Amino acid sequence: MAFPLLLAVCLGAMPPRADLVIAVFEGEDYGGWVTTGEAFGAAPARGTLPGQMAVSGYQGEGLVNTYLPDDSGTGTLTSPPFAIERAWINFLIGGGKDEERLRLDLLVDGEVVRTATGPSDRPGGSERLRPGTWNVQDLRGREAVIRITDEATGGWGHLNIDHIVQSDRKAIMPMPQTVTVPVTGRLLHLPVRRGADRVHVTLSATPTRPAHTFPIDLAWDREVEWWAPCDLGIPLPAELTIAADELPEDVALASLVRFSDTILNSDDLYREPLRPQFHFSAKRGWLNDPNGLVWHEGEWHLYFQHNPWGWGDGIKYWGHAISDDLVHWREVEQALYPDELGPMWSGSAVIDHGHTSGLGDPDKPLLVTLYTAAGASPCQGLAYSNDRGRTLTKYEGNPVLPYIEAVNRDPKVIWYEPDQKWVMALYLDREDFALFESADLKSWTKIDDVTIPGCSECPEFFEIGIEGRPGETRWIFYGGNGRYQVGTFDGQQFTPESGPHRIHQGNCWYASQTFTNVPAEDGRRILIAWGTVNLPDMPFNQQMSAPIELRLVETPAGLRLRSTPVRELTGLRRGSHALPAGPLAAGTTPLPTIRGGLYDVEIEWELGTAAWVGLNLRGFEVRYDQADQRLTVNGVSAHCPLRDGRLSLRLLVDRASIEAWAQGGEAYLPVQAVAGPEQEAVELVASGPGARIVSGTVYELGSIWPSPAVAARP
Fold first, then answer.
1. Cα 526 from Cα 289, distance rounded (Å)
2. Which of 498, 555, 582, 677 is at a distance of 20 to 30 A from 227, taking alpha carbons?
3. CATH of domain 285-565
4. What is the pLDDT of residue 143?
């Protein structure tokens, strides 16, 4: 009797049989599969299609991808008949979630007996394919076909399918999980990896934080690139409930959670190889638009668009940094969290000196922010602070400006002294903006429509004095790319006089904002922009521009804005290297004593008979060509005429960018230039004899950042 038992044990230990392939979509066509419509094309796709977010999670090189010609394509793809021989049919599926119009179906005798749809039906979704499975034990021996249907034409109107097999094993499926864990530190951490499965996580409310849901590229497989921290605030909750919309069945959500009082793996915080050293960047995660730039009680406030949960763009919070000098920034707690009205998109901040809003403590100065809540119907919300901007309380009557049309977003608010009222500039759609007025920041009335050709998003609207003409001013109106109009404003209507003109000619600048409430004794119009530059393989991404001062000057072509770096940046200078005045040798002249890789360069050339002159900075070329009167910085160029045969240049050189100002700001080129700290060489270059240096100095710069140990604390 022992033999049958031994045989049964041995048979039970036998590994499952190899899978039976139904389709892996690696051929030059669909083989015996039959297509209708246009969504499937003539052959399997080779990954991501034009205009589509990056597709991942498929096997091999090919897959079914119905994003043809985009989400508008429709059709079907049907397999040849096959016999069901195993207990499970497993597959990979991605794309849109629509149980009626986006379907992967199993048909027996012409009837649908099993079905599946994609996982994504909301912004922040992912094109990553996920495992799916059907239990078909009751259908063994039956003949079946598989049909893929795409009848959807709107957003997420496509499917991605790959690797359909019959198997003795059920695929490991993603499932929702919820866990309640004791809180043992102020910072909650979750593991992140670019390209990992996009998971929607919900955190329960704490005494100082609302409950909210966010997408994260969750490294549930332990291949962690970095840990995303979330400050839970004081007082800490005793426990926190965390929910994930889907995780593999064999992964415990609790095993992915870490708590500490400092940022995990932060020994090199602010000293990472590509960390900008004098341009602001977030400790962790993605940043973009500067928001709510305001001076208040001796401090400069930089709120900003922040996705703390990923390296790339995603759900938006308002991050917050504070400076005493416009140069050294300290990042503090998140200021605004997503809520039932949507993610927190761009906006602005003002000081309500007269307490026109009636909010907060009337005996304390009131900082008020206006922002876009970017839900299904974008609207404008208000939040305020009586504690010097540290915490923002959302107005109970939000939204203060309901949905109007199109995308309507990015409110920029100013105080208009002649009429004792608030004015809001708001983006509507395409090239269209609008102006609104309010007596109390809570009720708004439209007063004007403004169109700026070639410009959209992120409006900026302000009055500025004309240099050299005391008492004379003009109004400036521009959008995200900095194409501005010069005009007048009478409290009801903006009247353009010229433009659009360009603030900059670079490739590392967008969605700028200027500070409000700057003291009269200072009087400057100070701007910070989003420095659009990817920083690969870092636990953070993007930077802000250097703070710059705008001036409105009279030129032969009319009134134009000119910019220069703020004077406070000279405080970072640590050592100086004078460039000897006199003739410039042809070819390349190394300057080996200059080291560090962070530079502030001031130089004036007289070109004479030289065709071109320039500098090589950390491997990037800065060059001026005399024939076409163009300055080029790392391949990006702008027209800039010589003055009396001379060119003056100011350059700020950081780890990820070079910002160049020529002829006192006549040309401004903020340019992407990413290089590690080992690249620090400085060289003078010239096409031939004939040019000379009139004057020049290269300053080595220090860092704005504190030590990693200090910075890692909340």
1. 15
2. 677
3. 2.115.10.20
4. 97
| Residue 16 pLDDT | 77
Q: Is 115 exposed, middle or buried (0-12, 13-18, 19+ CB in 10 A)?
A: middle
Token reading at 19: 């899978």
Q: Are 424 and 441 in contact (CB under 8 A)?
A: no
| E strand or H helix at 176 | strand 174-182
513 pLDDT higher than 80: yes
CA-CA-CA-CA torsion sign (172, 176, 179, 183): positive
CB-side neighbour CA atoms (13 Å) of 269: 24
The torsion angles phi and psi of 569, rounded to 5 degrees, stand at -65, -25
Q: What is the mean pLDDT of residues 663-673?
A: 96
Q: What angle do CA 350, 352, 355 make, to 5 degrees?
A: 160
Name the active-site residue from 289, 352, 410, 654: 289
Residue 155 confidence (pLDDT): 86
Q: Is 113 exposed, middle or buried (0-12, 13-18, 19+ CB in 10 A)?
A: middle
Rounded average pLDDT over 439-459? 96
Name the residue among 433, 418, 527 with its Cα closest to residue 477: 433
Q: Which of 555, 556, 464 is nearest to 514 (CA)?
A: 464
**Which residues, in sequence order, are CB contacts of 137 under 8 Å at separation 6+?**
87
How large is the average pLDDT for residues 224-237? Answer: 92
Q: pLDDT at position 524, please?
A: 97
- Is residue 132 a contact partner of residue 91, using CB atoms and an 8 Å limit? yes
Task: Reply yes or no on whether the pLDDT at 213 is more than 60.
Answer: yes
- Coil, strand or helix at 686: strand
Place of tokens 């080129």: 669
Model confidence band, residue 262 (pLDDT cutoffs 50, 70, 90) = very high
Strand-pair partners of 646: 606, 643
3-state secondary structure of 274: coil
User: Residue ranges per domain, the chain?
Assistant: 17-167, 174-260, 285-565, 568-701
Residue partners of 707: CB distance under 8 A and separation at least 6 = none
The conformational region for residue 431 under phi > 0 = left, psi -120 to 50 = alpha, else beta, is alpha
Residues shown for the chain: 714
Provide the CATH number for the domain formed by 17-167 in this structure.
2.60.120.200
Q: Distance (Å, rounded) from C-alpha 242 to C-alpha 227?
A: 16
How many CA atoms are closer than 13 Å to the CA of 167, on its beta-carbon side?
Answer: 16
- Asked whether the bond before 182 is cis by omega within 30 degrees of 0, the reply is no
The two domains 17-167 and 568-701 share their CATH topology (first three levels equal): yes
Q: Whole-prediction pTM value?
A: 0.86
668 vs 670: CA distance, rounded Å: 7
Nearest C-alpha neighbor of 647 from the set 685, 696, 700: 696
Whether the bond between 248 and the residue before it is cis, its omega within 30 degrees of 0, is no
70 is catalytic: no
What confidence tier does 685 reach under pLDDT thresholds 50, 70, 90? very high
The tens digit of pLDDT for each residue in 327-384 reads: 999 999 999 999 989 999 999 999 999 999 999 999 888 999 999 999 889 999 999 9
**What pLDDT, in 10s, does the model give residues 162-175?**
999 999 999 988 88
Pick the CATH number of 568-701 from 3.30.70.120, 3.60.130.10, 2.60.120.560, 2.40.100.10: 2.60.120.560
What is the spatial distance between Cα 696 and Cα 699, in angstroms, rounded to a whole number?
10
Percent of the chain topping pLDDT 70: 97
Question: What is the C-alpha separation between 297 and 504, in angstroms, rounded?
Answer: 31
**Does the pLDDT at position 22 exceed 80?**
yes
DSSP collapsed to 3 states, 576-639: EEECCCEECCCEEEECCCCCCCCEEEEEEEECCCCCEEEEEECCEEEEEECCCCEEEECCEEEE
For 6, 8, 12, the CA distances from 3, given in Å and listed in that order, are 5, 9, 14
